[in-house]
Amino acid sequence: MPDKTVEKVATATGEPIPAVATDAGPAATGKPRSLWSDAWHDLRRNPLFLVSAVLIVFLLVMAIWPSLFTSASPRDVENLARDFRQPPQWGHVFGRDWLGFDGQGRSIYARIVYGARASITVGVGVTVCVTILGTIVGMIAGYFGGWIDTLLSRMTDIFLGIPFLLGALVVLNTFEKRSVWVVILALAFLGWTQIARVARGAVITIKQADYVVAAKALGASTTRILMRHILPNALAPIIVVATIALGGYIAAEATLSFLGIGLTEPTVSWGGDVSTGRELLRIAPHVLIIPSVMVSITVLSFLMFGDAVRNALDPKLR
Amino acid sequence: MGRYVARRLLQMIPVFIGSTFIIFFMMYALPGDPVRAMMGDQAYDPAVVASIKKDLGLDQPIIQQYVTYMGNLVQGDFGTQIASGRPIADIIADAFPVTIRLTIFAFTFVSLVGIGLGIVAGLKPDTLRDRGLLTLTLFLVSMPSFVLGFLLQYLLAFQWKVTDPTVTDSENWGQLMLPAIVLASLSLAYVARLTRTSIAENLRSDYMRTAVAKGLPRRRIIGVHLMRNSLIPVVTFLGIEVGNLMTGAIVTEGIFNVRGIGVEIYEALSRREGATVVGIASLMVLIYLAASLIVDLLYAVLDPRIRYA
Amino acid sequence: MRGAKSAKWVAIATAVALGATACGGSDGDSGNKGTKGGKPEGYVSIDVGEPQKPLIPADTNESNGSYVIQSLFTQLLDFDGDGNIVYTNAESVESADSKTWTVKLNKGWKFHNGEDVTAKSYVDAWNWYANIKNNQQNSFWFQDIKGYDDVHPEKGDPKAETMSGLKIVDDHTFTIELKYTMPYFNYKLGYTTWAPLPKVFYDDPKAFGQKPVGNGPYTFEKWDHKKLIQVKANPDYKGPNKAANKGVQFKAYTTLEAAYKDVVSGNLDMIRQVGPTDLPKYKQDLGDGAIEQPYAAIQTLTPAFYSKTFKDIDPKVLQGLSMAIDRDTITKTVLNNTRTPAKSFTPPGVKGNQDLDTDVFTYNPEKAKKLIEEGGGVPGNKFTVQYNTDGGHKEWVTAVCESIRKNTGVECVGDPKPDFATDLEARDNDQVKGMYRGGWVADYPVNANFMKELYHTTAEANNGRFSNKEIDALMNEADKAKSLDESVKAFQEVEKKLVEHMPAIPLWYYRINGGHGKNVDNVNVDFHGDLEVWAVTTK
């Protein structure tokens, strides 16, 4: 689950994490480069990054423009009696019957293609929401300190104390119709804490840096200091955590849909298809296994991507 | 140290109250009436529903219900289930040991195999076996537990017929093996990666170079110097994982039909047995809080630089 | 929702006879299998899960609890496979005017603790069940009795402790006076709710619910929560449904698959329903042990007549929608042959079931389209079907919707509710947006049960709020009939009228797909799909 990734970075005491961004000075080559261009230089030569980037682009195109991949509809039943649970026709690549049919006589290939949108929207959506919310809370807590920090930190603790899956079960149950947006908001509601902790840690370190002290002495406004000096420098560790978490959120959506409390009809979702297919594991395993594998491939792509980004942005790991 | 523990314990109180209230409140906000639900889809009498709700105090405002509930909870009374009339403590006592067993099983697996693999890879970073291990863990991480669960179920139970597809006796250690492995896989991958990174990093540190230069035996260098320093983050992670493993059990128990708290909580949710859900959730929150305290204390033991005042 | 047990009385005679020989034939090896799975010798086992509520007859309406209650308690009468009354604890239940009923009890019946079963055991129990203070779920079953409103007012405390309609004549005779005439009232008495209670019950109802004392064919032995309930044959039982085995174990399984596996391997004797995974091959696995039989239950699509879509809808449109559903293919594929396509509003096995002379239930896409057009179409050309996702309904709702969408172009989408609780709440509060999945299992095997309780304007379970003065009048008239036969006939006329108004679209009747292992025999199914455990014999 998404929670896990942070724990690697943050300690249980909520101690500040070494803000990785601060020791990103000029690279060893002698030519002064920013952290970002340095990272980019690194990424371009990382095969892990290249493979995952290609996969992700592929998935994105599928999510945005599914009809490019298949003319079949994920809902239409052409002939229930004929297609019912028919196994894949591996020879008919990209055909309607390529990956076989499900227990309703619908094309699994079409459902895979159309399911990409839900998965990716949720993954990206939650990551964006969590990053924004977590960064705001973390920055405020870290920068102002004092009672504001205590209050926000305790609030973070409360949300961390609720087991993620349990929380999601209860929150999502309150909604009858669960569109992509409901799932995004629910996961963001429970998941913002990790970024908040990372951001808070980073901000605490940065606020003692000379350039921040200088800006303050020059009479810069709080907003300006936060936006111009602190945020850009705290961004690297936040992005590291966020990209890795993205894969986790996609897995989380699939798991929740599998449990029957994720996306609801008529949204096509891989997790939901796995859950409808679970009774067919013995008689028609392809109905369940194909969407399962698809979830894994997608999560894997984003995880590899996140891994590559972290390696590039976190010099300590090099 | 004593004062630190006392302060931490005090800090836990608002966290406990806050998180249980959120869960309590959300249960309250759920659509669907537990008393009505128990009547089924044939004819029923609204007067009986109202009367039962009144007797159970379900017609009172939420804050009052929460206060009453917490008051009883503090005295060790978890309340009774609406439909069965059984004490919730009994239900928890039936289900908890099963989940704890599953969690211990998975936790042992995570610790032994995860750290083992991490050490194997970390000692020789960037070799073939290191790369192989990293790839393997990446695959494990990218498989949500239901995917891995079904895959193993399909292969082991249906294709090769070496195990039963589901658990028939939740108190049988042998049958819990497969669910425990599935539950463990994700954490295992993280632990292996974390251990590997930590060891690889410490291998390059100054104190290691010094130890080697001093001519200390390799066994001692690795066993004492390297391990002690490298395992600190791993221990932290493991501590937090206990709580995650317990909730992760909700999915795993569902796939393999283990009758633990996961199944119980899922059932209680769909029947709107609020008190059962909140009771189990409170216990989980407590375990999580206790685990994070223990981890912090362990931290001090492992890392001499940290002293809690 | 589950009710009275019935018995296939013809089958019993043969059952007992066969059982005797079967037992005799296998005496030789019964010793070594006696203790298998911790089961005492001569006991039979069946997969019945944890009852939802304590074991009190009037507080149980789900099938797990009903199974156990039925083994422990016997009420006045019962039914055979054709829906005819068979007296059990009663010698007779008769009425001259369908309003006042006289009950004569069989003498010599005892509760398991030795107490005599008398008229008082019944009257006191019914008064207790009906009292609002006792919060009994099935209390409304007593609403036809005079004085019910005094012990069970809609609001406030009861005005009386007893119903004035119940009068004890002597130890073994009592009379029931109803508020109105009801020719089939005696049929209602077959429901488990009408069971008597011993005096010990009133000392501590709560403890009784965990360890009940009944008057039925079995006595209670133990309840290991969520694992097992065990009952022992009652040697002194006087009723016709006397246990043919030495006892029963009701075993809880977490999945149908696990239970099925145990049946195949011999660890479990009977399974009530084979899971979808095993359906394709259970007939081969179980051979003669496979059970496939329809029972008195129906599934429908019920329009909410207050919703925007179906308010003032022309019944022709509903007839059209009905004809657009390919019931045959869907039952064969998506539903794994667990249902039989419906041909009327009442399932087979209930009195008065008839084949309606209409093609409204036959798949015919062209005519479907035509009818919908003639009727002015579905407003917005779109409707929803509400169902609960925790009951295995998603598959068939999707299939039905796709069938309608494909054949008529009317957009049909599922409206899933996360669980039964939410689904029911929406129905109760008139918040269904289009149709909902309706279902009904017979409480008593008379066609009135499938019409009066569902489509009368004042019926509690009429969640579609179908209301038609003509139909109401016909039903009220049918209730006033002098005899049951006349009443059944009158309801058959009502059913013919229903086709013109379409208060619901009948989809299919339920079928039980169960089975039993090689160690037992004589496994029969009653009218609402329950296996008759008492008749089962061990080999």
TrEMBL record, chain A:
Residues 1-31 are annotated as: Disordered. It comes from the Bacteria. It is found in: Cell membrane. InterPro entries: BP-dependent_transpt_permease (IPR050366), MetI-like (IPR000515), MetI-like_sf (IPR035906), OppC_N (IPR025966). SUPFAM superfamilies: MetI-like. The chain crosses the membrane at residues 48-68, 120-146, 158-175, 181-199, 234-263, 283-306. Keywords: Cell membrane, Membrane, Transmembrane, Transmembrane helix, Transport. CDD domains: TM_PBP2 (cd06261). The keyword S-adenosyl-L-methionine does not apply. Gene3D superfamilies: MetI-like. Residues 116-306 form the ABC transmembrane type-1 domain. Pfam families: BPD_transp_1, OppC_N. It is a multi-pass membrane protein. PANTHER family: ABC TRANSPORTER PERMEASE PROTEIN, OLIGOPEPTIDE TRANSPORT SYSTEM PERMEASE PROTEIN APPC. Belongs to the binding-protein-dependent transport system permease family. This is ABC transporter permease. It comes from Streptomyces polyasparticus. The lineage of its organism: Bacteria, Bacillati, Actinomycetota, Actinomycetes, Kitasatosporales.
TrEMBL record, chain B:
It is a multi-pass membrane protein. Coiled coil: none annotated. Residues 96-299 form the ABC transmembrane type-1 domain. Keywords: Cell membrane, Membrane, Transmembrane, Transmembrane helix, Transport. It is found in: Cell membrane. The keyword Membrane applies. InterPro entries: BPD_transp_1_N (IPR045621), MetI-like (IPR000515), MetI-like_sf (IPR035906). This is ABC transporter permease. It comes from Streptomyces polyasparticus.
Automatic annotation (TrEMBL), chain C:
InterPro entries: Peptide/Ni-bd, SBP_5, SBP_5_dom. Pfam families: SBP_bac_5. Residues 24-43 are annotated as: Disordered. Residues 90-460 form the Solute-binding protein family domain. Residues 1-22 form the signal peptide. Keywords: Signal. The keyword Signal applies. The keyword Signal applies. This is ABC transporter substrate-binding protein.
